[in-house]
């Protein structure tokens, strides 16, 4: 613990200098003592922090405006600090002076420009609440970008569903032919999962979008800070209440990364399905989404989908790394946390790309209708429909299942369904009556036809084209609602940016 306390002392000393310009140099001396020595680069997160450079500037601005409004620092100093921040922003992350992290480096850059009074920027805060605010601020944007990509992907999948409502294909369980379905029904099954992935991300967003600023190191501050005001200036929907929790928690990162890992798992299934379909000639990928072999000239491989499948490891591994980092950390801040964010960033970057590529591959693919329809009867995949017919005629479903199972026994996976005569003989054997006592030939032949078989299954959510049309309509409604939710959040963020700019302009 003593290490952590040393850091906190450094921060506390630091804050104390704000009211006393003469002690500005001492801050530098004290920092020199803790410059890191041989562990300098090990301690530093400065290059990783490029990700939160812009976030830190926003957080600094909101904090400084609030400090001035609360008369914790004077307006003139606020103006000088805010002008310096604009200059630091123009120079960019690469021009920052050396520092343990972006927060320290930006502060040093401000002090370089303003003089010791620049150190007043860090009044009533610690890097602990500062970095937490930066991570939340940046993560918000990343979540929204990911949601936008997922919403776009859903739109593409819905388009495929609309076009392929009548395209019959084999459906599988255990990777074995099971029942005929359609490309539309299959693709909507993933669109539906992506709806939930979207909802999970938007839900996580609510808990990301809380303001930790004003918690200081963890124990609050004697200054009369206005936490609602910094929330408003940063577009946070609320204040992360307990200051110890607010500065220490990263559960919002875990929640977001978990949603990303779940999304990646959804995509991996989609990718695997397409890889298997491609291997059977059930889908023809656009060349843009395929790759060839450096030696086997005839090959057209579904590499993009394999990478989508493989990138699942980026997200699931990231979640694992993150939770392992967070596990067992005592309250309040510990430096372990400096290594937490990267897992979330890597996961979200990797999977945002995956979403777009997976959807692009599906949206541009060709679905060979004849091949798919022929494959849809492989392995007597219409068997359940025959049993259903018998059950509709009053035969207990279990008995109907036995009749059809008996007729199907010994059929190879590529073989066609047994014909009317064969089924009739088995029915007579098991039921004691000819098949015609239950089902006429026409109805049976319809059940054996994959297109008719699909059309019969028109229960809500089923594959029949009419049932799919309803699913498409619902999916479109949810898509519109989710796009609206996305726009609302983007608007809240950009309104806060406008508010910040307006306030900053009052001082500069
Ligand atoms: N770079 C640090 C991080 O990312 C900032 C907080 C440092 N706080 C401290 N008490 N050492 O977590």
UniProtKB/TrEMBL annotation:
<comment type="pathway">
    <text>Amino-acid biosynthesis; L-arginine biosynthesis; L-arginine from L-ornithine and carbamoyl phosphate: step 3/3.</text>
</comment>
<feature type="region of interest" description="Disordered">
    <location>
        <begin position="1"/>
        <end position="31"/>
    </location>
</feature>
<keyword id="KW-0456">Lyase</keyword>
<feature type="region of interest" description="Disordered">
    <location>
        <begin position="489"/>
        <end position="508"/>
    </location>
</feature>
<dbReference type="GO" id="GO:0004056">
    <property type="term" value="F:argininosuccinate lyase activity"/>
</dbReference>
<dbReference type="Pfam" id="PF14698">
    <property type="entry name" value="ASL_C2"/>
</dbReference>
<keyword id="KW-0963">Cytoplasm</keyword>
<dbReference type="InterPro" id="IPR008948">
    <property type="entry name" value="L-Aspartase-like"/>
</dbReference>
<dbReference type="InterPro" id="IPR029419">
    <property type="entry name" value="Arg_succ_lyase_C"/>
</dbReference>
<feature type="domain" description="Argininosuccinate lyase C-terminal">
    <location>
        <begin position="380"/>
        <end position="455"/>
    </location>
</feature>
<protein>
    <recommendedName>
        <fullName>Argininosuccinate lyase</fullName>
        <ecNumber>4.3.2.1</ecNumber>
    </recommendedName>
</protein>
<dbReference type="InterPro" id="IPR000362">
    <property type="entry name" value="Fumarate_lyase_fam"/>
</dbReference>
<dbReference type="GO" id="GO:0042450">
    <property type="term" value="P:L-arginine biosynthetic process via ornithine"/>
</dbReference>
<dbReference type="InterPro" id="IPR022761">
    <property type="entry name" value="Fumarate_lyase_N"/>
</dbReference>
<comment type="similarity">
    <text>Belongs to the lyase 1 family. Argininosuccinate lyase subfamily.</text>
</comment>
<feature type="compositionally biased region" description="Basic and acidic residues">
    <location>
        <begin position="7"/>
        <end position="31"/>
    </location>
</feature>
<dbReference type="GO" id="GO:0005829">
    <property type="term" value="C:cytosol"/>
</dbReference>
<dbReference type="InterPro" id="IPR024083">
    <property type="entry name" value="Fumarase/histidase_N"/>
</dbReference>
<dbReference type="Pfam" id="PF00206">
    <property type="entry name" value="Lyase_1"/>
</dbReference>
<feature type="domain" description="Fumarate lyase N-terminal">
    <location>
        <begin position="75"/>
        <end position="317"/>
    </location>
</feature>
<keyword id="KW-0028">Amino-acid biosynthesis</keyword>
<dbReference type="InterPro" id="IPR009049">
    <property type="entry name" value="Argininosuccinate_lyase"/>
</dbReference>
<keyword id="KW-0055">Arginine biosynthesis</keyword>
């Amino acid at each position: 613990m003593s290490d952590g306390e040393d850091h906190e002392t450094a921060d506390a000393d630091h804050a104390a200098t704000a009211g006393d310009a003469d002690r500005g140099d001492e801050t530098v001396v004290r920092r020199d003592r803790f410059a890191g020595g041989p562990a300098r680069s090990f301690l530093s997160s400065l290059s990783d922090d490029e990700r939160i450079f812009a976030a830190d500037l926003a957080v600094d601005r909101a904090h400084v405006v609030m400090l001035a409004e609360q008369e914790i620092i004077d307006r003139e100093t606020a103006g000088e600090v805010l002008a310096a921040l604009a200059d630091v922003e123009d120079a960019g992350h690469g021009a920052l002076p050396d520092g343990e992290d972006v927060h320290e480096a930006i502060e040093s850059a401000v002090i370089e420009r303003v003089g010791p009074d620049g150190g007043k920027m860090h009044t009533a805060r610690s890097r602990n609440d500062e970095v937490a605010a930066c991570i939340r601020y940046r993560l918000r944007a990343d979540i929204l970008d990911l949601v936008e990509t997922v919403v776009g992907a859903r739109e593409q999948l819905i388009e495929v569903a609309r076009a392929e409502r009548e395209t019959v294909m084999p459906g599988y369980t255990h990777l074995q032919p099971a029942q005929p379905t359609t490309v539309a029904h299959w693709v909507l099954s993933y669109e539906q999962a992506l709806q939930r992935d979207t909802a999970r991300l938007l839900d996580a967003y609510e808990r990301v979008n809380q303001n930790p600023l004003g918690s200081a190191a963890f124990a609050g501050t004697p200054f009369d800070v206005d936490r609602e005001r910094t929330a408003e200036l940063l577009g946070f929907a609320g204040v992360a209440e307990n200051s110890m929790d607010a500065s220490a928690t990263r559960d919002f990162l875990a929640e977001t990364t978990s949603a990303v890992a779940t999304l990646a798992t959804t995509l991996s299934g989609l990718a695997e399905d397409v890889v298997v379909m491609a291997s059977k000639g059930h889908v023809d990928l656009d060349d843009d989404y395929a790759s060839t072999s450096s030696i086997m000239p005839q090959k057209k491989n579904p590499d993009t989908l394999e990478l989508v499948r493989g990138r699942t490891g980026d997200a699931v591994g990231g979640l694992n790394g993150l939770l392992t980092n967070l596990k067992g950390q005592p309250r309040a801040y510990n430096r372990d946390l400096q290594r937490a964010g990267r897992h979330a960033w890597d996961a979200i970057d990797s999977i945002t790309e995956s979403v777009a590529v997976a959807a692009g591959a599906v949206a541009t693919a060709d679905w060979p209708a004849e091949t798919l329809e022929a494959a849809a009867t492989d392995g007597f995949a219409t068997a359940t429909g025959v049993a259903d017919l018998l059950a509709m005629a009053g035969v207990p479903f279990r008995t109907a299942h036995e009749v059809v199972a008996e007729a199907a026994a010994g059929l190879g996976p590529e073989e066609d369904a047994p014909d009317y005569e064969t089924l009739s003989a088995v029915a007579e054997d098991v039921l004691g009556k000819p098949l015609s006592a239950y089902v006429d030939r026409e109805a049976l032949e319809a059940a054996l036809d994959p297109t008719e078989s699909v059309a019969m299954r028109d229960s809500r959510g089923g594959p029949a084209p009419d049932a799919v049309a309803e699913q498409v309509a619902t999916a479109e409604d949810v898509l519109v609602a989710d796009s609206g939710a996305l726009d609302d959040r983007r608007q809240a963020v950009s309104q806060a940016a406008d508010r910040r700019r307006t306030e900053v302009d009052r001082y500069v």
